[in-house]
């Protein structure tokens, strides 16, 4: 095996283990809070505790990622997430942890994630050859898909036999595996690492914005990513709602739909890993958004008795996800100079995290008044229009396939 492939595979395995244990913990916390309080407001607050720090800090964390050792940042952020989990485990095993304490733990874990994700994304192009970035993005999406596919079933098993504190310890073990793998890998340094320059937060952050603006089509791609997050987030979050309220399905049916979508995502990741850079990125990104939108539109047109058709559409919609997210990050990784990549990736993640919950809020209000099936139809229509914009704007096509 080539040297870079071994490094990439080890990184992927470490992150897959960490994502799996974190997903199990995230689901377990939501179930714990639901079972304990029965309050939608409490569950919503837990979601915000996990999103807001990443969204706000993501505007600025890139300045540190581009200045200091990305390897060290990945290790420290994983360690912070693990320490927060240890604190929750200790509190859970000793007694019932207070709800505000759980929110605080989720907040701290989100701070760690605000550094971890962009740092990992920025370090990948220093390991993987440029011409292999699209394929490797597909494989990373595959690692993540397997983890997300397994996590609901494993959580359901563990939640019945373990206390929350024991499930939290599983997440600590997952983070430890990821840290150990990164710790013993020899990873290339970033351009500014060890330069002795101090972080000048506002100036460095503005440089990240300037890099995006200076590259023709990059700003438009960032806007398109933000709009897609606004459209995608409410649809993705309302699968259980449309399954059980509109199609009249059971909890088991809802689980089957989620598995179908996750299975489609895994298939899409494998296809992207196989096709790799043979794809023309702009048409592939447009197709992924357009097909997802068409699936949502068709879902909105289905009759309430057509749950099986919705399950089949969920597989198709799932297939599109790696092609958008995998190819999008490959475009940024290949087009942005590595010394600015941490800032650009953290900015990209931040604006998406702001747009997603906003879309979910508006989508929830619209679903309550007009019906969840109409939310799917109109959101899908917007996605199809967004796909057409990608094909119609030359700067976006040139940016993706330069």
What can you see in these coordinates?
This protein is an all-alpha fold. The chain has two domains: 1-184, Growth Hormone, Chain: A (Up-down Bundle), CATH 1.20.1250.20; 216-402, Up-down Bundle (Growth Hormone, Chain: A), CATH 1.20.1250.20. Helices cover 85% and strands 0% of the residues. The chain is built from 16 helices and no strands. It has helices at 3-37, 40-57, 61-67, 70-94, 99-127, 133-161, 164-184, 201-214, 218-237, 239-246, 251-275, 281-301, 307-335, 338-370, 372-392, 394-401. α5 packs across α14 (338-370). It is globular, with a radius of gyration of 21 Å. It starts with a helix and ends with a helix. The mean pLDDT is 82.
Attribute tags:
Growth Hormone, Chain: A; 16 helices; 0% strand
Write down the Rg.
21 Å
DSSP strand content: under 5%
CATH-assigned homologous superfamily of the largest domain? MFS general substrate transporter like domains
Whole-number total of structural domains: 2
List the helices and strands in order: HHHHHHHHHHHHHHHH
Q: Report the sheet with the most strands, covering strand number, pairing sense and barrel closure.
A: none
Structural class: mainly alpha
- Share of residues in helices: over 70%
Which shape, going by the Cα principal axes?
globular
- CATH topology of the largest domain, what is it called? Growth Hormone, Chain: A
Q: Give the CATH level 1 class of the largest domain.
A: Mainly Alpha
Question: Architecture of the largest domain, according to CATH?
Answer: Up-down Bundle
Regions with little confidence, pLDDT below 50 for 5+ residues: none
Mean pLDDT: 82
């Amino acid at each position: 095996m080539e040297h870079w492939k071994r490094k990439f595979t080890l990184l992927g395995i470490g992150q897959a283990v960490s994502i799996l244990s974190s997903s199990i913990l995230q689901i377990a916390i939501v179930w714990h809070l639901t079972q304990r309080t029965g309050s939608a407001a409490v569950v919503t607050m837990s979601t915000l505790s996990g999103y807001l720090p990443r969204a706000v800090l993501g505007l600025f964390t890139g300045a540190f990622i581009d200045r200091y050792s990305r390897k060290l940042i990945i290790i420290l952020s994983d360690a912070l997430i693990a320490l927060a989990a240890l604190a929750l485990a200790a509190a859970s095993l000793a007694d019932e942890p207070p709800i505000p304490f759980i929110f605080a733990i989720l907040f701290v874990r989100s701070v760690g994630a605000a550094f971890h994700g962009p740092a990992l994304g920025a370090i990948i192009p220093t390991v993987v050859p440029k011409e292999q970035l699209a394929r490797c993005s597909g494989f990373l999406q595959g690692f993540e898909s397997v983890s997300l596919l397994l996590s609901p079933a494993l959580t359901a098993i563990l939640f019945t036999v373990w206390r929350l504190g024991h499930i939290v310890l599983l997440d600590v073990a997952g983070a430890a595996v990821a840290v150990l793998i990164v710790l013993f890998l020899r990873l290339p340094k970033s351009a500014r690492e060890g330069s002795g320059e101090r972080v000048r937060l506002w100036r460095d952050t503005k440089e990240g914005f300037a890099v995006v603006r200076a590259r023709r089509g990059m700003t438009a791609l960032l806007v398109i990513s933000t709009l897609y997050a606004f459209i995608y987030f409410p649809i993705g979050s309302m699968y259980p709602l449309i399954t059980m309220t509109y199609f009249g399905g059971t909890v088991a049916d809802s689980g089957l739909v989620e598995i179908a979508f996750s299975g489609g995502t895994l298939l899409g990741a494998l296809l992207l890993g196989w096709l790799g850079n043979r794809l023309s990125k702009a048409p592939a990104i447009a197709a992924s958004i357009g097909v997802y939108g068409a699936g949502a539109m068709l879902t909105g047109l289905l009759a309430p008795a057509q749950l099986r058709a919705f399950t089949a559409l969920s597989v198709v919609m799932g297939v599109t996800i790696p092609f958008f997210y995998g190819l999008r990050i490959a475009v940024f990784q290949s087009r942005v100079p590595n010394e600015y990549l941490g800032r650009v990736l953290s900015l990209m993640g931040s604006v998406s995290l702001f747009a997603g919950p906003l879309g979910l809020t508006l989508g929830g209000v619209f679903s309550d008044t007009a019906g969840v099936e109409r939310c799917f139809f109109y959101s899908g229509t917007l996605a199809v229009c967004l796909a057409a914009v990608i094909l119609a704007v030359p700067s976006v096509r040139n940016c993706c396939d330069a």
